[in-house]
Amino acid sequence: MILRSPSSVLPRTLDEFQEWESVDGFKYEWNDGKIIRFGKLKKKHLFIIRRLQQLFYRTVAFQKGSALIMEQDVMLSGIQMRRPDLAYFSGTQIDASVTSDKEPIPEFLIEVISPTDDAENVEEKLVEYFNANVKVVWHIYPENEVVYVYTSRKNVFICTDLDICSAAPVMPDFAISARDLLSTSI
Fold first, then answer.
1. What is the pTM of this model?
2. What is the pLDDT, as a whole number, of residue 184?
3. Residue 43 DSSP SS3
4. What is the distance between the alpha carbons of residues 86 and 158, in angstroms, rounded to a whole number?
Protein backbone atom coordinates (compact mmCIF):
# COMPACT_ATOMS: atom_id res chain seq x y z
CA MET A 1 0.00 0.00 0.00
CA ILE A 2 1.37 3.44 -0.92
CA LEU A 3 1.06 5.74 2.08
CA ARG A 4 -0.55 9.09 1.52
CA SER A 5 -0.26 11.44 4.49
CA PRO A 6 0.68 15.07 5.01
CA SER A 7 4.20 15.61 3.65
CA SER A 8 5.15 17.47 6.85
CA VAL A 9 4.98 14.15 8.74
CA LEU A 10 6.72 11.90 6.22
CA PRO A 11 10.21 12.10 4.74
CA ARG A 12 10.41 13.67 1.29
CA THR A 13 13.79 12.42 0.10
CA LEU A 14 15.61 9.11 0.23
CA ASP A 15 18.15 10.60 2.65
CA GLU A 16 15.35 11.74 4.97
CA PHE A 17 13.70 8.34 4.65
CA GLN A 18 16.91 6.53 5.64
CA GLU A 19 17.16 8.66 8.79
CA TRP A 20 13.43 8.37 9.60
CA GLU A 21 12.16 5.85 12.11
CA SER A 22 8.48 5.02 12.17
CA VAL A 23 6.86 4.59 15.55
CA ASP A 24 3.66 2.91 14.42
CA GLY A 25 4.98 -0.67 14.19
CA PHE A 26 4.64 -0.91 10.41
CA LYS A 27 7.44 -1.70 7.92
CA TYR A 28 8.16 0.88 5.23
CA GLU A 29 10.06 0.83 1.93
CA TRP A 30 11.11 3.58 -0.47
CA ASN A 31 10.49 3.27 -4.21
CA ASP A 32 11.37 6.25 -6.39
CA GLY A 33 9.87 8.85 -4.04
CA LYS A 34 6.97 6.75 -2.82
CA ILE A 35 6.76 5.46 0.73
CA ILE A 36 5.18 2.03 0.84
CA ARG A 37 3.72 0.69 4.10
CA PHE A 38 3.44 -3.00 4.93
CA GLY A 39 1.46 -4.72 7.63
CA LYS A 40 2.81 -5.79 10.98
CA LEU A 41 4.48 -9.18 11.32
CA LYS A 42 1.95 -11.85 12.18
CA LYS A 43 2.69 -14.48 14.84
CA LYS A 44 2.83 -17.31 12.29
CA HIS A 45 5.28 -15.28 10.22
CA LEU A 46 7.51 -14.85 13.24
CA PHE A 47 7.45 -18.62 13.78
CA ILE A 48 8.50 -19.20 10.14
CA ILE A 49 11.27 -16.58 10.36
CA ARG A 50 12.64 -18.32 13.47
CA ARG A 51 12.57 -21.71 11.74
CA LEU A 52 14.48 -20.23 8.77
CA GLN A 53 17.07 -18.67 11.08
CA GLN A 54 17.54 -22.01 12.86
CA LEU A 55 18.03 -23.74 9.50
CA PHE A 56 20.56 -21.09 8.46
CA TYR A 57 22.65 -21.61 11.61
CA ARG A 58 23.34 -25.18 10.41
CA THR A 59 24.74 -24.11 7.00
CA VAL A 60 28.32 -23.89 5.82
CA ALA A 61 27.66 -20.25 4.88
CA PHE A 62 26.91 -19.37 8.52
CA GLN A 63 30.12 -21.11 9.62
CA LYS A 64 32.01 -18.91 7.12
CA GLY A 65 30.64 -15.64 8.52
CA SER A 66 27.60 -15.08 6.33
CA ALA A 67 24.35 -13.70 7.75
CA LEU A 68 20.60 -14.04 7.15
CA ILE A 69 19.33 -10.67 8.31
CA MET A 70 15.73 -9.75 9.07
CA GLU A 71 14.34 -6.57 7.49
CA GLN A 72 17.73 -5.20 6.44
CA ASP A 73 17.66 -2.08 4.26
CA VAL A 74 18.63 -3.19 0.76
CA MET A 75 19.45 -0.51 -1.80
CA LEU A 76 18.53 -2.09 -5.12
CA SER A 77 19.26 1.07 -7.08
CA GLY A 78 19.68 4.75 -6.40
CA ILE A 79 15.91 5.13 -6.05
CA GLN A 80 14.77 1.83 -4.53
CA MET A 81 15.29 0.80 -0.91
CA ARG A 82 13.50 -2.41 0.06
CA ARG A 83 13.31 -4.34 3.35
CA PRO A 84 12.85 -8.02 2.56
CA ASP A 85 11.79 -10.21 5.46
CA LEU A 86 15.16 -12.01 5.28
CA ALA A 87 18.23 -11.17 3.22
CA TYR A 88 21.34 -13.34 2.85
CA PHE A 89 24.72 -11.60 2.80
CA SER A 90 27.96 -13.55 2.38
CA GLY A 91 30.79 -12.93 4.81
CA THR A 92 32.78 -11.42 1.96
CA GLN A 93 29.97 -8.94 1.20
CA ILE A 94 29.68 -7.95 4.84
CA ASP A 95 33.45 -7.44 5.20
CA ALA A 96 33.69 -5.44 1.96
CA SER A 97 30.75 -3.20 2.91
CA VAL A 98 32.73 -1.75 5.82
CA THR A 99 35.25 -0.07 3.51
CA SER A 100 33.12 0.45 0.39
CA ASP A 101 30.50 3.01 -0.56
CA LYS A 102 28.87 0.37 -2.75
CA GLU A 103 25.77 -1.22 -1.20
CA PRO A 104 25.84 -5.03 -1.12
CA ILE A 105 23.06 -6.83 -2.99
CA PRO A 106 21.97 -10.06 -1.30
CA GLU A 107 22.06 -13.14 -3.50
CA PHE A 108 19.12 -14.73 -1.69
CA LEU A 109 15.96 -13.08 -0.32
CA ILE A 110 12.89 -14.37 1.48
CA GLU A 111 9.52 -12.65 1.61
CA VAL A 112 6.69 -13.97 3.79
CA ILE A 113 3.56 -12.91 1.93
CA SER A 114 0.51 -11.79 3.90
CA PRO A 115 -3.08 -12.05 2.66
CA THR A 116 -3.16 -8.24 2.64
CA ASP A 117 -0.07 -7.87 0.42
CA ASP A 118 -0.92 -6.45 -2.99
CA ALA A 119 -0.09 -8.92 -5.80
CA GLU A 120 1.12 -6.12 -8.09
CA ASN A 121 3.56 -4.90 -5.43
CA VAL A 122 4.82 -8.42 -4.76
CA GLU A 123 5.51 -8.90 -8.48
CA GLU A 124 7.08 -5.44 -8.80
CA LYS A 125 9.54 -6.27 -6.02
CA LEU A 126 10.37 -9.60 -7.66
CA VAL A 127 11.26 -7.76 -10.88
CA GLU A 128 13.41 -5.30 -8.91
CA TYR A 129 15.22 -8.10 -7.09
CA PHE A 130 16.22 -9.92 -10.26
CA ASN A 131 17.12 -6.66 -12.01
CA ALA A 132 19.54 -6.04 -9.11
CA ASN A 133 21.13 -9.50 -9.63
CA VAL A 134 19.55 -11.37 -6.74
CA LYS A 135 19.92 -15.07 -7.59
CA VAL A 136 17.19 -16.76 -5.50
CA VAL A 137 13.92 -15.41 -4.07
CA TRP A 138 11.48 -17.33 -1.90
CA HIS A 139 7.87 -16.18 -1.61
CA ILE A 140 6.31 -17.94 1.36
CA TYR A 141 2.51 -18.02 1.56
CA PRO A 142 1.77 -19.35 5.08
CA GLU A 143 -2.01 -19.24 4.72
CA ASN A 144 -1.89 -21.33 1.53
CA GLU A 145 0.98 -23.52 2.77
CA VAL A 146 3.06 -23.00 -0.35
CA VAL A 147 6.53 -21.64 -1.14
CA TYR A 148 7.49 -20.27 -4.55
CA VAL A 149 11.25 -20.63 -5.14
CA TYR A 150 12.39 -18.32 -7.94
CA THR A 151 15.79 -18.51 -9.61
CA SER A 152 14.58 -16.04 -12.24
CA ARG A 153 11.22 -14.51 -13.04
CA LYS A 154 10.58 -17.36 -15.48
CA ASN A 155 12.07 -20.20 -13.45
CA VAL A 156 9.96 -20.99 -10.39
CA PHE A 157 9.56 -24.18 -8.37
CA ILE A 158 6.33 -24.42 -6.37
CA CYS A 159 6.81 -26.28 -3.09
CA THR A 160 4.00 -27.89 -1.12
CA ASP A 161 3.87 -30.76 1.35
CA LEU A 162 7.13 -32.75 1.10
CA ASP A 163 8.65 -30.76 -1.78
CA ILE A 164 12.09 -29.43 -0.85
CA CYS A 165 12.60 -25.67 -0.95
CA SER A 166 16.27 -24.93 -1.67
CA ALA A 167 18.41 -21.81 -1.82
CA ALA A 168 20.68 -23.42 -4.42
CA PRO A 169 22.79 -22.31 -6.18
CA VAL A 170 23.51 -19.68 -3.49
CA MET A 171 23.37 -22.04 -0.48
CA PRO A 172 22.78 -25.66 -1.51
CA ASP A 173 22.65 -26.80 2.12
CA PHE A 174 19.82 -24.36 2.96
CA ALA A 175 16.92 -26.67 2.17
CA ILE A 176 13.69 -27.66 3.92
CA SER A 177 10.42 -29.29 2.97
CA ALA A 178 7.45 -26.97 2.66
CA ARG A 179 5.67 -29.02 5.31
CA ASP A 180 8.53 -28.68 7.82
CA LEU A 181 8.85 -24.96 7.14
CA LEU A 182 5.14 -24.15 7.41
CA SER A 183 4.12 -26.47 10.23
CA THR A 184 3.51 -24.56 13.43
CA SER A 185 3.84 -27.63 15.61
CA ILE A 186 6.93 -27.57 17.81
1. 0.79
2. 73
3. helix
4. 19
